[in-house]
Every structure is written in structure tokens, then in C-alpha cells.
Design a protein that fits this description.
Elements: H1 2-16, H2 21-27, E1 31-35, E2 58-66, E3 69-77, H3 80-101, H4 109-116, E4 122-123, H5 126-141, H6 151-156, H7 169-176, E5 184-187, E6 192-195, H8 208-222, E7 228-232, E8 235-239, E9 248-253, E10 261-267, E11 270-276, E12 281-284, E13 287-290, E14 293-294, E15 299-300, E16 306-311, H9 314-338, E17 343-348, E18 355-359, E19 367-369, E20 377-381
Parallel strand pairs: 18-20
Antiparallel strand pairs: 1-2, 2-3, 3-7, 4-6, 5-6, 7-8, 8-11, 9-10, 10-19, 11-16, 12-13, 14-15, 16-17, 17-18
Bound molecules: adenosine-5'-diphosphate and magnesium ion.
Length: 382
Amino acid sequence: MRKESGSFVRWARVWTRGITPRVALGLAGITLCGMVVWGRSEGWGSAAAALPGPDARRSVAWVGRTMGTYARVTLVTADSAAAAPQALLAHAALHRVDSLMTNWTTTSEVARLNREAAKSPTTVDPEVARVLEASLRIWRESGGAFDITVEPLVRAWGFLGGPRRVPSQAVVDSAMRHVGGQRIHYDAASRRLRYDDDGVRIDLGGIAKGYAVDVAADSLVAHGVADALVDLSGNMMALGHPPGADHWRIGIRDPRDRIPFLGRVRLSGQAISTSGQYEQFVAADGKTYGHIMDPRTGRPADGLLSVTVVAPTAMEADGWDTPLFVLGPSQGRRAAHRLGHVAAILVQPGRGDVDTVWVEESLRDRFTLEPTARLRFRVRYF
Ligand code: ADP
Ligand code: MG
């Protein structure tokens, strides 16, 4: 992914030679979507319908790909050409975080740590250190439900490098011998990291997207952007508001995919993130196994259909959606209540056709069930 930052420099050069922003964005693989029309494809990354404000500003989205998924930067602007460089910089920030934290290349900082930290203590890049520190805090606060040492398990189930499969109990047991946050030792003062043995690996896939969204949003703010929505595969930061409304309205996807959204949350100045087993899973014996691992059992967690978290930062929202999913309906609700800065919506499968949407009290005024969802979901507050 270093390749990508190199190509960014190239786009920047092309830019200074006077090629229009639209062409430069094309070179970057980023598409200017123009006036955003909210339809099904906008999915859970949607915002409110863009009404022209008195200043004629519109919501305009630039869509690209990073971290193996889509990324969408929506800016509220009266001049999409002038706004393009800001969107491009936000996309570049997402790419940069990916190149540091991905488990899909051998050149990332995380890959280097996974090669070296069992041999001797190794100094961690400052940004990766921030995510590592947050991960270890969430590991402690979630009683081990969030655990970045799940990598050997994620690999055993084929979610890293594939093919996806249901591993034998022996394979699960041997992966589990290297799983557990207590097997990594990190000293924040010196930023040194050491692993217990050379089977230990970390995987920041449960939190890095959130961090990337924060960095992209910070880049927008640093360039004077007040109203924007950054969306990296359902990990979002909502800055300000869209034209003609005082909040962004974020759709929460139906985890069974029968309707586009089950409901919406109004959001301004906050982040939101959704985790579910519907995106990446392996189907076998009439069951589906998702990519969120229960580090206590070595098997995919299966008590919930999805978890949505609202938090002050996207890293916090992404970091918490995974462990609440692992903890399941009862413990997950208790943990969400305990956490003052995090509010959650948990979707629990029902026995019949009707699933339960558990909405935390603090979100009561901001959550609305879609009319089309009324037959399929019942809402309960906690
Ligand atoms: P998404 O990647 O769909 O946004 P998540 O935020 O839930 O969803 O992250 C899922 C990823 O987190 C998995 O693909 C894996 O890399 C990692 N992961 C799986 N189980 C755990 C866990 N218990 N704790 C920490 N990370 C996990
Ligand atoms: Mg997560």
C-alpha cells in the first residue's frame, strides 16, 4: 500500500500541472458522484435528502475504495471543483491509515510488528501505537470480548487470506493457544511491543477503519470544512449538518437485507459504526458463521444480528461495536449502559419473523424505525 501513497504524490503533481480536479480524482480512482440522490445504493451510509439551502450548497460525494471496501466522503458545498482537493485529501488519509494498519500486505507497520515483536521488543509507529493503546483499553473494559490477538482465529476461519471454512476443533484449539490480550506486552512510555511467542499476531480490523475515519475527518476540519460525512464501510463521522437540515440522518441497514434500512439515527458532531455478520461470513451446514470472533470460545459470535454504536469518535464507535456484538444481547446491553460515552442499538434475532431492535434510552429521541420495518422489527428501549 506504500504504492498507493506514491501514486497520491503522482496525482498531486498532475494536479499542479493544471489538470482539473475531476481528472485528478479520476486518476485517484475516486468518483465524483455529483448531487447525491439517496437511494438504496446509499444504504446505511446515507444522509438526509439534500435540499438546496439559501446559499445553494449541495451534498456532493466522492466515492473510492480502500481497506478492501468502499469509502465515501460527502461534502456540503456550493462549488464541487473547489471542494475536490479537500475530498481527495480525506481519501488520501484513509489510504495512509490502511497502508499502516492492514493485515493484507507484508509492507504495513502491523505486518512488521507481527514479524518482529516475538523476537524482541520493537518500537511501534506513533499512530499504530494510538490504535494499539485504545485496543488494549477496550480489551480490558470489555472483559476480553474485544481482543486484537484474534488474528490466528480469523485466519483459521479463512477470513484473512481465505478460503473461508469451518475449521476442525483441533485447528481452533491450536489457534487459541496464541490468542489473548495478555500475550502481548506494550509499554506506552517507550512505545515498545513484545509478543509472548511467535504464533501471536495482532489484527486491527475491528478498530482501524474507525481511526481512519477520524483522521480523514480531522483533515477536513483542518482545511476549513464544517459540514461533511465521512463513511468507510459503515464507519462514519458526521460533521455539522447537510443543507436544509440540522442533522445528518444515518440509515441502519436491515441485517437480513430484506429492506434497505430498518431505521435511522439523527447525528451531528458524532460518529456511528455498525458491525454485523452479514458482510463477511462462511455458510456451512445450514448455518452462517461471521467474521467476528468470540475470543473465549474460538468461534464466531452468534447472539446478535448487528450492533450499531454512536460515540464521540469513529475509533471509539468502531472499537465498541465488535465487543458488544461478542457479548450478545444481555451482556452487551449491560456493557453499553456502563459506558457513558457510547450508546448502542442491538438487533437480536427473534424466534419467528420479528427481530428485536434494542435502542439505548439516550438514543430514543434520535432513532426512528422505518415504516417498512414495522412488520419485521419491534423496538425496545433499554
Ligand atoms: P467491519 O470490519 O465489518 O467494520 P468490525 O468492526 O466488527 O466489522 O470488525 C471485524 C473485524 O475485526 C474482523 O474482520 C477481524 O479482523 C476483527 N475481529 C474479529 N473478532 C474480533 C474480536 N473479538 N476483537 C477484536 N477484533 C476482532
Ligand atoms: Mg469494530
